[in-house]
Design a protein that fits this description.
The chain is built from 16 helices and 12 strands. By secondary structure, the protein is of the alpha/beta class. The strands form 3 sheets. A 6-stranded parallel sheet has the order 5-12-9-8-6-7, with helices on both faces. Strands 2-1-3-4 form a 4-stranded mixed sheet, with helices on both faces. Helix 9 packs antiparallel against helix 10 and helix 12 packs across helix 13. The radius of gyration is 23 Å and the shape is elongated. The two termini are about 35 Å apart.
Length: about 475
């Protein structure tokens, strides 16, 4: 079969998909299309169609993202419709306000918890304070909290986190806050602890302080929570009217944490640049309902560059329980750069695939960022990204220990029925996978999940 393959935005000929088709005995015509001149791209595509008379056109360029049997008339009609849709989308963007979100204050450094009370006083956050804390945070920071809050004149009480950011846990925290007459809620722990603190504070209309004790996700700076069922299955995103009043990151504490959690944070942050770029190029709304800004996209790119530059060295620092400049930069990338980048630019397929994967019980022992990292591989396959891009992501993931196969997220066996359930959940109405610049169906996601697994297994064999 002769196939005219039109590559994706900021992609190049010779990617994974056309190469796969060529290896399976198809004749593939894969012209280079310009990124910035859509009219010229249409002209090149039409010329290639007229010259080669293919049996099928496969398109993933901008708004062309399906395959169809072609005739000259149908080809022209589809391409013309795509130009019209793109023009309409640009007109919508022109009317959309740009929105950039960030916490009121971000403080990071070794022994930063010593300054927590004074930081809060400086922002006029008075007690009583209810501290929602995970087990490790309580073990490491109880004495420091007593000192810093006493010196600042802030009464406080500690409420142990129940383990899941669920509706039931949020209600338990709210009940504790009312009991202690809390005027501010402090979350101390991992991403789910902080999500729960934000949810309870928002419901009670109280200020919130986030103190991540691990750099395992980009949750601390955002104005949203990811809500799960008691069984750990993704339920919903919950959005709030403002970002945290203070985010305070103590890198001495993070250096004492499990290395795997730092790596999980890298997985969450790894997707930020790719999802942000997809959303910006597709002119879709960010997580706050506005257009992205140059600043947000630049921070997302800096996040990716920092991961590549400092990820491995920062991991070694945590393995030896020391706070180094590389760890400081990496923690900032995982926490601040990724948080600002995703919220103010947007999410796409990687996080939607994560949400789908939570429908598989075998993945429940794996962290958010680990599943997002695998979701990123699925996104890159879906988008037909070039081989160099895929290789760079695979190389980094393998270097720091992020999962690149299904077996590494608990799915050594993935029955067809469960695969369909995961893919259907990932493509549910309202999911961020629909920010991709083409229609995404469950069967496409199922194929991409398996293709990403094959790619990861091949990489491991080669290395």
């Amino acid at each position: 079969m002769k196939i005219l393959f039109l590559h994706g935005w900021q992609s190049v000929p010779g990617g994974v998909k056309p190469t796969y088709l060529a290896q399976h005995s198809h004749e593939v015509v894969n012209p280079k299309l310009p990124d910035e001149d859509f009219g010229e791209a249409v002209s090149i595509a039409q010329d290639e169609f007229d010259n080669h008379q293919p049996d099928v056109v496969v398109g993933s360029y901008r708004n062309i993202s399906c395959s169809w049997p072609v005739s000259g008339t149908r080809m022209s009609r589809i391409l013309s419709r795509s130009m019209t849709e793109r023009k309409n989308q640009r007109q919508k963007e022109d009317a959309m306000l740009s929105v950039f979100c960030f916490p009121s204050r971000y403080t990071q450094g070794k022994n930063a918890t010593d300054s927590l009370g004074q930081e809060m006083v400086g922002l006029r956050l008075r007690g009583p304070a209810l501290v929602i804390a995970g087990r490790s945070a309580i073990r490491l920071l109880t004495d420091t909290w007593k000192t810093t809050f006493r010196e600042a004149g802030i009464d406080h009480a500690v409420h142990p986190f129940g383990g899941e950011c669920s509706h039931a846990e949020i209600e338990r925290v709210k009940s504790a806050a009312r009991q202690h007459k809390a005027q501010v809620i402090v979350g101390a722990g991992g991403g789910k602890v902080l999500d729960t603190a934000r949810a309870a504070a928002a419901d009670l209309d109280l200020p919130v302080v986030n103190c991540p004790t691990v750099a395992s996700s980009d949750a601390p700076c955002s104005a949203l929570s990811v809500i799960y069922t008691e069984e750990g299955v993704f339920h919903e995103y919950r959005f709030y009217r403002k970002n945290p009043d203070l985010v305070l990151v103590d890198t001495r504490v993070i250096a004492q944490g499990p290395p795997r959690l730092l790596v999980a944070g890298m997985g969450d942050a790894l997707a930020t640049w790719f999802e942000a770029k997809t959303c910006v190029e597709g002119h879709v709304k960010n997580m706050r309902g506005g257009a992205s800004t140059q600043s947000a996209l630049a921070l997302a790119k800096l996040c990716y560059e920092t991961l590549l530059a400092d990820g491995a060295e920062a991991l070694r620092a945590v393995q030896t329980h020391v706070a180094t400049p590389a760890l400081e930069r990496l923690v900032e990338a995982n926490t601040l750069l990724s948080g600002l980048g995703f919220e103010s630019s947007g999410l796409a397929a990687a996080h939607a695939v994560h949400n789908g994967l939570t429908a598989a019980p075998g993945t429940h022992d794996y962290f958010h960022g680990e599943k997002v990292a695998y979701g990123l591989l699925v996104q890159l396959v879906l988008e037909g990204q070039s081989r160099p891009v895929l290789q760079q992501v695979l190389r980094f993931a393998a270097e720091v220990g992020l999962p690149i196969t299904l077996a590494e997220i608990g799915l050594k066996e993935l029955p067809k029925e469960l695969l369909h359930k995961v893919a259907s959940r990932a493509t549910a109405k309202g999911e961020t996978i629909h920010n991709e610049p083409f229609e995404v169906r469950p069967d496409m996601v199922a194929d991409a999940i398996l293709a990403a697994d094959a790619m990861g297994r091949a990489w491991k064999t080669m290395k």
